[in-house]
Specification:
globular, 5-stranded antiparallel β-sheet, mainly beta, 168 residues, 2 helices, binds zinc ion
């Protein structure tokens, strides 16, 4: 069938378009997304990250295309890439105030994913935390938290290690 076709001319609707170079692509995807996250520290196990209301805000065909656009995309959100550490307390990427990483807070991440077009699913191969926002800058919607009976809880063993880049 056409699924495995490598000729972009024949992809039709079954492709993404890069937000930087506008080239059609299928996999892997390099994206920037935002969502509300919290870190659950549980004694001696690796911390878990709980994510609600996450959505992609930009998608790219390659890492260089994404790198070119990260600051512009975040600037539109009035945020800087500060590459926060894992917590428990980090500085807000807008105002510098403390962010309690154990409570839901707005988080910007970039992720590399392998897209499986046949099964319509994606596997995250790498994520980097770009920015976090404090309660004053981006209060997490209480409704969203209340309505999420079963937040996506991802055990860190099931995820590729998050990269927390220190830029000192
Ligand atoms: Zn591109
Ligand atoms: Zn703030």
């Amino acid at each position: 069938m056409t699924r495995l076709n490598t000729d972009p001319e024949k992809w039709g609707d079954e492709a993404y378009f890069c937000d930087a170079c506008e080239k059609p692509f299928r996999t892997p995807m390099f994206d920037i997304s935002k969502g509300y996250e919290r870190t659950i520290y549980d004694g001696n196990r690796m911390p878990e990250v709980e994510i609600i209301g996450s959505g992609t805000i930009a998608q790219y065909c390659s890492d260089p295309c994404r790198v070119k656009k990260i600051s512009a995309v975040l600037a539109k959100e009035n945020v800087r890439a500060t590459y926060p550490d894992i917590g428990p307390v980090e500085a807000c990427s807008r105002c510098g105030k403390p962010v309690d990483m154990t409570k839901f807070h707005l988080t910007y991440v970039d992720s590399d994913t392998e897209q499986d077009w046949d099964r319509m699913c994606a596997t995250v191969t790498k994520t980097v935390v770009l920015a976090v926002l404090c309660d004053a800058c981006a209060p997490p919607p209480q409704r969203l938290i209340a309505e999420t009976d079963f937040p996506v809880s991802i055990k860190s063993e099931d995820l590729p290690p998050r990269e927390y880049l220190k830029v000192d």
